[in-house]
Amino acid sequence: MAVATRYEVVVGLEVHAQVLTQSKMFCGCSTDYLTTPPNANTCPVCLGLPGSLPVINRRAVEATIRTALALNCEIPEFSKFDRKNYFYPDLPKGYQISQYDLPFSRHGHLEFDVKGEMRRCGITRVHLEEDTGKLVHEGAIDQAQASLVNFNRAGVPLMEIVSEPDLRSADEAREYVMRLRAILQYIGVNNGDMESGQLRCDANVSLRPVGATELGTKVEIKNMNSFRAIHRAIEYEIGRQTEVLEAGGRLIQETRGWNDARGLTVSQRTKEFAEDYRYFPEPDLPPLEVSREWVAEIRSSLPELPAARRERFVTGYGLTPYDASLLTSSQPMAEFFEETVRLGTPAKAAANWMLGDFSRLLNAEHTEIEQASVKPTHLQQLIALVESGVISGKMAKQSFEAMYRAPDPGPALAALRGSTQISGDAELEGIVAQVIGENAKSVADFKAGKQQALKFLIGQGMKISKGRANPQRLEALLKEKIT
Which residue, 11, 256, 299, 372, could crosslink 167 as a Cys pair with Cβ 3.0–4.6 Å? Predict the structure, then answer.
């Protein structure tokens, strides 16, 4: 059996999502840790000072149940918080208030497609905890110059969404996180920003012989802050583990960090087991009874989810399932599309522009669509100029990048309106005469039946007219004059 098919890949993901609340999980401090000075948003509770007592943030609990319902989870009537004991410089109390055996949800699932094939990944649980602080290292860590700690993030509400080990490739893992991120955005509980750490993912990767039912030795990968990093890290780890097993070696359960610059994982520590954390019920917080009425109220407030919106884009707008899947992959993208269509743009034209030139520029700069200066009204106006024949598609494409890079796309649009397409035969015939006179060989080749020569001649005409010639009429006149 070939190495590539000898082992089955098993991946489970732990996604940490900060909850969009104004205050922290157990105190009234602000959750804004990105723009405030270090350690400004702290108090005795989130610093774990003696005598301080936590109070549960109801909005964070509601957001967790909201997420669990969107992921088809069961919501138990009884839940509690637990202490998870471990010591690290960014954990001020020396323990983390989390959930262990009685979380807010269990037994859910998420369905998604990979290359046209539908997949289903189980969700073990969605539970709630508090985030840690953040270490800032001065200089290289191995040189031990200095490490500073900022506790502004300590205590921010953090959901952990734990999947079953149902994923079988890096492609599936990436798609799972993309779909999960979209759901979190749609229901308004997380902004989906991976780069700043507000959405984080750890991957548990193992290999086992094909046909085996027992799981292999699990390795956890951390420090992945993009979809691309998730895919690359898992691919690398599959290759690394395969090489170890093929050489007769043994894998150890450990935590490895992803080094994006070097494209590899690096061992960080031996992986802890649940008993190492010495969980016990949090004595300062009462158990929670989650009423069925509250669950029903939260369920009724859920918006249209990505899967339903994707189906509506197919049936309502006539898009392909693939295009609909891409357009609904994030809430801002889907809303941009629908607003562009609402303004009068044909759905297919809007989809083609958004998934073509627009997405290419966004991806090149790692920018989200809501951050772009081009808004639905700008795209609608550009497509309208093309649809009405005022400008050619080539002219629009040439101008779109200038619109995208300008702080205000308005002037570029105004310039396009002034650069009307040349469609009149009187002006086009002069261009055709010039093309024929300057390209005798290509004219002869076209007369000899070489269709490629006609494309060259049309290109020369578009060049002379600086892209303004109506290409269909230009082609017709060239055929007429040459034949």
Answer: 11
* Same domain? 396 vs 366: yes
pLDDT at 46: 94
Note down the domain range covering 467: 425-482
Number of domains in the chain: 3
Do 60 and 33 share a domain, yes or no? yes
Phi/psi of residue 345, each to 5°?
Answer: -80, 135
Neighbour-count burial for 115-130, b at 16+ CB within 10 Å, e otherwise = eeeebebbbbbbbbbb
Do 65 and 200 sit in the same domain of this protein?
Answer: yes
> 114-125, pLDDT tens digit by residue?
888 889 999 999
> Residues with Cβ < 8 Å from 127, sequence gap 6 or more?
64, 98, 99, 103, 104, 105, 159, 160, 162
Question: What was the pLDDT predicted at 261?
Answer: 92
List, for residues 411-464, the tens digit of each pLDDT value. Answer: 888 777 666 666 667 777 888 888 888 898 888 888 888 888 888 888 788 778
pLDDT, position 160: 97
- Token couple for 402: 């200038």
Is residue 8 located within the same domain as residue 152?
Answer: yes
75 and 97 assigned to the same domain:
yes
